[in-house]
């Protein structure tokens, strides 16, 4: 015989029940079958809700009852041919009347014991099993209904009753011995006490009913039919890359379900384990999928089979100097919990015995505090033990696998993976059997922890980078183009999955948790919500993705002030905006320290020389022990463009205008022409070389006339470039007369820095600097005479975007 159990979603509608009937039909050609069914999906919750409402004197219980009635009557009408409907509808209505009477009683006396609640909630399975048995008969199947309350006997622990196995097994065996039908349909979850009172086996208990029947009848297999294709490597609702485990041992399945894999109710394994009856978890909605086979030993030798988690846990700590070396403390502690029927999911005790830490359900936290503080009231009064510390909103995650004990380094890998992703671990437990390693973490970290562990232990080591991109102007737009073009290459060659999760322009923002489709980001952003950088931060933090990167493509001071907030959340920052790194030294240093402390890279290669690897080279020099003595550089692509093109025919004003059109200048050209932009860049290089310097410490010999320096607005400033033509021509002619070219040079020498326009002679490396190129000469201990030279295009949206992209990939390769 086979036992098939169908869960709530499998029988949630007539359409689904028809799928169930087909599966049973197929299976019953060769076998006798027991079919255990849950209540129609959602009905158990509705029944419990109706009971609570009635108990609170809330007439809305009638509404819940009506919904329950409507759903069942609809299913009957859809499943049973019209000619045969009336009898079935009559029977359901009779049962509904009984339910209504019970609820009315609760409403009148405002009291709801677990016993009465069980009576109410049992109707869910009684309805479903009756309807399904009738539907099968109407499909010409040789099916018969048997109420499992007549078979399964329990103690009186209502709502979570314990099965009395001897009587139960005998009842079941006797029944099936005399049964002559091919298919027997039974309600799951429900039972009766020895006195004939209705009891239930705990939420999810239909799995257990099926296992009890399988064991008592020595079934060849127990099939659990549900809405997923097996027991997954992690909860598929949290980890999109999770996949069904083909084969797993009873012990492993038990650990996974005990630690939250809801697909199997934890007590289910016990009855079938003894008889070594295999369990197969199958998908009602994809019957061909292989599913998961649970057997005594698993053929799969992977040391880790799955990761599971339990939410809503409270971490409880009992500590105090009075606990050291005193026997019996743990006994008293756990006895107090046991008297309150509080179940403990994880325990740790340091060898100092100064504290004991354990995890229980959030719901039990208050009860536990009262019980334990009462138990230790004397010691607390004497200050030998502290009042119980309760921290709610935690979760437990557990790695499970029988073969972990024969593999070293798994816990090390688990904790370092979590650590690297800034998941704080509050407590750790590893059972002596080494079948599971579990840790307590904050609720907010569940998704990140599960995904990082899953990727570390089960995936092809693809690293996901999640980008939150601020600014889609010239540079931002190009960056998105480049990412789109390289996505496939990066995945294939570097195993990097680069996803853009959010985008903003100056007015709007858009989020897509699965990654924005870069083929049409513009209309998506257009349809986005109003830009709100506080809300943006909140969303990034709530998503709490691993490898999150905040990408700043703006030149905006307010955006630069947000970096610390992101770094503190372990979100990396990649920016082409120079303002943060050239702000006061304390701020610069603080950002670098936060990056270290929170393990979140802060990268700004494009602050100097756009895409040229200037800062990265400098970092490598310093990291390898070199010391910078002098830097000479032409760092303004814009000024270079201006002075390369400015001559007697092409006026200074015209050239500045062209530079603006070609995107070589900052939105405000004064930042370039005043030399401030170059000051910022040499400041950043000086700081990266290890010197504490402020912007005010840098000497700036401006080549601008007083009128230009005094101009208040951008248009006024541009106007002075016209009116002061003579001033600029004069500078040009003087240099030309000396056979020199004009370059705006930045120098850092012996701890001081200066910038200014210089006449450069033809034998100098700066002389032949074309277009908007930059050049940097690093004089160091290792390069004392012949400097290390970096030269190339130093401005423009394309190269700046590729510099940002390189920083993003640096994080990916890290
Ligand atoms: P049923 O109503 O069929 O008994 P359940 O809702 O009790 O179904 O269990 C199936 C659900 O368990 C899945 O839909 C899934 O959301 C959840 N689940 C949690 N962890 C896992 C896991 N590791 N593998 C598969 N499903 C899981
Ligand atoms: N209907 C019950 C519940 O929802 C039992 C079950 O479905 O397993 O918990
Ligand atoms: Mg279930």
UniProtKB/TrEMBL annotation:
<dbReference type="GO" id="GO:0046872">
    <property type="term" value="F:metal ion binding"/>
</dbReference>
<dbReference type="InterPro" id="IPR045865">
    <property type="entry name" value="ACT-like_dom_sf"/>
</dbReference>
<dbReference type="GO" id="GO:0004072">
    <property type="term" value="F:aspartate kinase activity"/>
</dbReference>
<dbReference type="InterPro" id="IPR001048">
    <property type="entry name" value="Asp/Glu/Uridylate_kinase"/>
</dbReference>
<comment type="pathway">
    <text>Amino-acid biosynthesis; L-methionine biosynthesis via de novo pathway; L-homoserine from L-aspartate: step 3/3.</text>
</comment>
<dbReference type="Pfam" id="PF00742">
    <property type="entry name" value="Homoserine_dh"/>
</dbReference>
<dbReference type="InterPro" id="IPR042199">
    <property type="entry name" value="AsparK_Bifunc_asparK/hSer_DH"/>
</dbReference>
<keyword id="KW-0560">Oxidoreductase</keyword>
<dbReference type="Pfam" id="PF22468">
    <property type="entry name" value="ACT_9"/>
</dbReference>
<keyword id="KW-0791">Threonine biosynthesis</keyword>
<dbReference type="InterPro" id="IPR049638">
    <property type="entry name" value="AK-HD"/>
</dbReference>
<keyword id="KW-0486">Methionine biosynthesis</keyword>
<keyword id="KW-0418">Kinase</keyword>
<dbReference type="InterPro" id="IPR036393">
    <property type="entry name" value="AceGlu_kinase-like_sf"/>
</dbReference>
<dbReference type="InterPro" id="IPR001341">
    <property type="entry name" value="Asp_kinase"/>
</dbReference>
<comment type="similarity">
    <text>In the N-terminal section; belongs to the aspartokinase family.</text>
</comment>
<dbReference type="GO" id="GO:0009089">
    <property type="term" value="P:lysine biosynthetic process via diaminopimelate"/>
</dbReference>
<dbReference type="InterPro" id="IPR001342">
    <property type="entry name" value="HDH_cat"/>
</dbReference>
<dbReference type="InterPro" id="IPR011147">
    <property type="entry name" value="Bifunc_Aspkin/hSer_DH"/>
</dbReference>
<comment type="function">
    <text>Bifunctional aspartate kinase and homoserine dehydrogenase that catalyzes the first and the third steps toward the synthesis of lysine, methionine and threonine from aspartate.</text>
</comment>
<keyword id="KW-0915">Sodium</keyword>
<comment type="similarity">
    <text>In the C-terminal section; belongs to the homoserine dehydrogenase family.</text>
</comment>
<keyword id="KW-0521">NADP</keyword>
<comment type="subunit">
    <text>Homotetramer.</text>
</comment>
<dbReference type="Pfam" id="PF03447">
    <property type="entry name" value="NAD_binding_3"/>
</dbReference>
<feature type="domain" description="ACT">
    <location>
        <begin position="399"/>
        <end position="472"/>
    </location>
</feature>
<keyword id="KW-0479">Metal-binding</keyword>
<dbReference type="InterPro" id="IPR019811">
    <property type="entry name" value="HDH_CS"/>
</dbReference>
<keyword id="KW-0028">Amino-acid biosynthesis</keyword>
<dbReference type="GO" id="GO:0050661">
    <property type="term" value="F:NADP binding"/>
</dbReference>
<dbReference type="InterPro" id="IPR054352">
    <property type="entry name" value="ACT_Aspartokinase"/>
</dbReference>
<dbReference type="InterPro" id="IPR005106">
    <property type="entry name" value="Asp/hSer_DH_NAD-bd"/>
</dbReference>
<protein>
    <submittedName>
        <fullName>Aspartate kinase</fullName>
    </submittedName>
</protein>
<dbReference type="GO" id="GO:0004412">
    <property type="term" value="F:homoserine dehydrogenase activity"/>
</dbReference>
<keyword id="KW-0067">ATP-binding</keyword>
<keyword id="KW-0520">NAD</keyword>
<dbReference type="GO" id="GO:0009090">
    <property type="term" value="P:homoserine biosynthetic process"/>
</dbReference>
<keyword id="KW-0457">Lysine biosynthesis</keyword>
<comment type="pathway">
    <text>Amino-acid biosynthesis; L-threonine biosynthesis; L-threonine from L-aspartate: step 1/5.</text>
</comment>
<dbReference type="InterPro" id="IPR002912">
    <property type="entry name" value="ACT_dom"/>
</dbReference>
<keyword id="KW-0808">Transferase</keyword>
<dbReference type="GO" id="GO:0009086">
    <property type="term" value="P:methionine biosynthetic process"/>
</dbReference>
């Amino acid at each position: 015989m086979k036992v098939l159990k169908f869960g709530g979603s499998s029988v949630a509608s007539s359409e689904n029940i028809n799928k169930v009937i087909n599966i049973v039909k197929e299976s019953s050609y060769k076998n006798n079958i027991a079919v255990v069914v849950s209540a129609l999906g959602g009905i158990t919750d509705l029944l419990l809700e109706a009971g609570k409402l009635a108990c609170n004197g809330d007439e809305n219980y009638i509404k819940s009852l009506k919904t329950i009635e409507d759903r069942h009557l609809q299913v009957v009408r859809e499943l049973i041919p019209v000619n045969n409907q009336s009898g079935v509808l009559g029977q359901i209505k009779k049962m509904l009347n009984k339910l209504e009477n019970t609820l009315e009683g609760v409403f009148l006396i405002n009291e709801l014991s677990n016993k009465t609640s069980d009576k109410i909630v049992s109707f869910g399975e009684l309805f479903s099993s009756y309807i399904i048995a009738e539907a099968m008969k109407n499909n010409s199947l040789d099916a018969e209904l048997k109420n499992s309350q007549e078979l399964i006997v329990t103690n009186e622990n209502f709502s979570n009753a314990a099965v009395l196995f001897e009587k139960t097994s005998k009842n079941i065996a006797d029944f099936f011995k005399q049964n002559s039908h091919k298919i027997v349909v039974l309600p799951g979850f429900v039972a009766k006490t020895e006195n004939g009172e209705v009891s239930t086996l705990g939420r999810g208990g239909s799995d257990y009913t099926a296992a009890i029947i399988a064991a008592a009848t020595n079934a060849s297999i127990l099939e659990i039919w549900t809405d997923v294709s097996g027991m997954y490597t992690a909860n598929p609702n949290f980890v999109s890359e999770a996949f069904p485990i083909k084969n797993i041992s009873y012990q492993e399945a038990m650990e996974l379900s005990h630690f939250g894999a809801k697909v199997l109710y934890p007590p289910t394994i016990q009855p079938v384990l003894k008889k070594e009856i295999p369990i197969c978890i199958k998908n009602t909605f994809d019957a061909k999928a292989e599913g998961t086979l649970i057997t005594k030993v698993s053929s799969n030798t992977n040391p880790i089979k799955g990761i599971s988690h339990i939410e809503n846990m409270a971490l409880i700590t009992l500590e105090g100097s009075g606990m050291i070396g005193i026997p019996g403390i743990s006994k008293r502690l756990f006895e107090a919990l046991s008297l309150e029927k509080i179940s403990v999911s994880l325990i740790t005790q340091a060898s100092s015995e100064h504290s004991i830490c354990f995890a229980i359900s959030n719901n039990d936290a208050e009860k536990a505090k009262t019980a334990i503080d009462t138990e230790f009231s004397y010691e607390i009064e004497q200050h030998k033990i502290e009042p119980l510390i309760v921290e709610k909103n935690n979760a437990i995650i557990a790695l499970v696998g029988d073969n972990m004990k024969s593999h070293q380094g798994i816990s090390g890998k688990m904790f370092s993976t979590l650590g690297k992703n800034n998941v704080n671990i509050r407590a750790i437990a590893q059972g002596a059997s080494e079948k599971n390693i579990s840790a307590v973490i904050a609720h907010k970290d569940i998704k990140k922890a599960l995904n990082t562990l899953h990727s570390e232990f089960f995936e092809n080591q693809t690293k996901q980078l999640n980008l939150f991109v601020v600014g889609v102007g010239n540079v931002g737009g190009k960056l998105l183009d480049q990412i789109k073009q390289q996505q496939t290459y990066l995945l294939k060659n570097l195993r990097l999955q680069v996803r853009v999760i959010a985008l903003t322009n100056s007015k709007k923002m858009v989020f897509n948790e699965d990654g924005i489709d870069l083929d049409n980001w513009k209309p998506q952003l257009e349809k986005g919500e109003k830009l709100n950088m506080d809300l943006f931060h909140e969303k990034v933090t709530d998503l709490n993705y691993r490898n999150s990167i905040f990408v700043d493509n703006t030149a905006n001071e307010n955006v630069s002030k947000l970096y610390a907030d992101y770094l503190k959340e372990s979100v990396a920052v990649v920016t082409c905006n120079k303002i943060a790194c050239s702000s006061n030294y304390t701020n610069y240093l603080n950002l670098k320290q936060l990056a270290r402390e929170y393990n979140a890279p802060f990268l700004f290669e494009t602050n100097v020389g756009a895409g040229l690897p200037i800062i990265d080279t400098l970092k490598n020099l310093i990291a390898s022990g070199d010391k910078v003595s002098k830097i000479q550089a032409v760092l303004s692509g814009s000024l270079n463009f201006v002075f390369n093109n400015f001559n007697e025919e092409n006026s200074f004003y015209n050239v500045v205008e062209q530079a603006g059109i070609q995107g070589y200048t900052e939105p405000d050209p004064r930042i370039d022409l005043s030399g401030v932009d170059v000051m910022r860049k040499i400041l950043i290089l000086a700081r990266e070389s290890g010197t504490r310097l402020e912007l005010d410490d840098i000497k700036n010999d401006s080549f601008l006339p007083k009128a230009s320096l005094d101009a208040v607005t951008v248009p006024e400033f541009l106007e002075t470039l016209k009116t002061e033509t003579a001033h600029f021509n004069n500078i040009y002619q003087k240099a030309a007369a000396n056979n020199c070219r004009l370059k705006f040079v930045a120098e850092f020498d012996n701890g001081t820095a200066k910038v200014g326009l210089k006449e450069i002679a033809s034998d100098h490396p700066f002389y032949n600097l074309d277009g908007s190129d930059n050049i940097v000469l690093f004089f160091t201990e290792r390069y004392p005479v012949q400097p290390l030279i970096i030269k190339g295009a130093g401005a423009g949206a394309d190269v700046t975007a590729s510099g940002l992209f390189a920083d993003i990939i640096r994080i990916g390769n890290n």
